Amino acid sequence: xxxxxxxxxxxxxxxxxxxxxxxxxxxxxxSDTVGTSKEKRAFEKNEYIITQxxxxxxxxxxxxxxxxxxxxxxQQAIEAYTKAIEQNSGFIKAxxxxxxxxxxxxxxxxxxxxxxxxxxxxPKFILGYFNRGIAYERLGNKEKAIEDYNEAIRLYPKxxxxxxxxxxIYYSLGKEEAALKEYEKVIEIHPQVFWPYYYRAAAYYKSxxxxxxxxxxxxxxxxxxxxxxAYINRAIINYELxxxxxxxxxxxxxxxxxxxxxxxxxxxxxxxxxxxxxxGxxxxxxQAISIQPRYDLAYNNRGFTHLSMGNKEQxxxxxxxxxxxxxxxxxxxxxxxxxxYSSGNTKEALQDYSIAINLNPKYAKAYNNRGxxxxxxxxxxxxxxxxxEAIRLDSNYPNxxxxxxVAQFNxxxxxxxxxxxxxxxxxxxxxxxxxxxxxxxxxxxKYQ
Length: 448
Prior knowledge:
The chain is mostly helical and 448 residues long. 71% of the residues lie in helices and 0% in strands.
């Protein structure tokens, strides 16, 4: 039986592009009129000096609820708002704020009930629609969320947060054009607000228009020169557009803005690794860990870097530390499995891949590499089952087809092997992986 070497995946290196974050809830303040400047002052005007005569009144309980809310004591806030509502069933602001406290305590349905109650009392209460839209989003009911955000906009077209949240929903649905239109509306209303440029850049990036995304990040930075996420995202785009120096300048800027932020060093380390500056990457991972000693991903990536430099023992130490800090970090088990496999510890590698899969059942690369480990132990049937699952999870995964072909060949199933290798060759060619394409073609020509 001819033994054909299996193809091993490269390790995973984290490089995160920051996309729009989950929207935050605006809590009703002392005015029912909502605008950009007033949003930032939520609760600031709700504090009163409570006299003996005012104690145990709706307003005193309302203020107590606000204080508890700001302290993140949500259950106590709910109790205080409830007392205010019991004494004044039409106290819209207390009902709204109880809804917000319920939302943050995890009672999303209760929050919706409160927001709906405010709208029964006042169908023009903008925050009722806006906050209910956010609650519907959490429940996955995006259609109702869209309806509520649109109603908030209809009532007050200059309220920019519903536009932002609408664009995020459209973005998540893959409707980049609709998302872009929402950002453009905000820019028209408030051209000097950085949010829409920042979020629109992400939409442009996803749609493939990297130059437009770059221009929006440039505008974002001109309006918010200390927004480090914008520099990180611009660095990623600059790198992908081939301007490595501009990318490095952005990462350096992030660190100069906040030299005590561990993620700044982490991101620059990832970038340096991609440039082949492995020693520089190690220095940055070391700095990130010195600032945040329990930084699991920094240990994982430092281990990745050590392994790529042949420092297997140091790599294993880092993966062990990452797992100690975060026992549910699937990528650390996966990478430790790779380190163990490369050191000849196949059984231990198999265990690590299995743990990674248990933690992340959709981890196609872990299935592929467990298949490799099983093939090396001549357990070809189980290896094929792993390759099957990897392909089910990612039908355009050429290494899994290649490796399954190897296992099929070793079981004497030549036709099945050739079919898998041909599929691998097709995908390698589509991905412009020329060397892999040539390698698998040699096998096809030799055995067909």
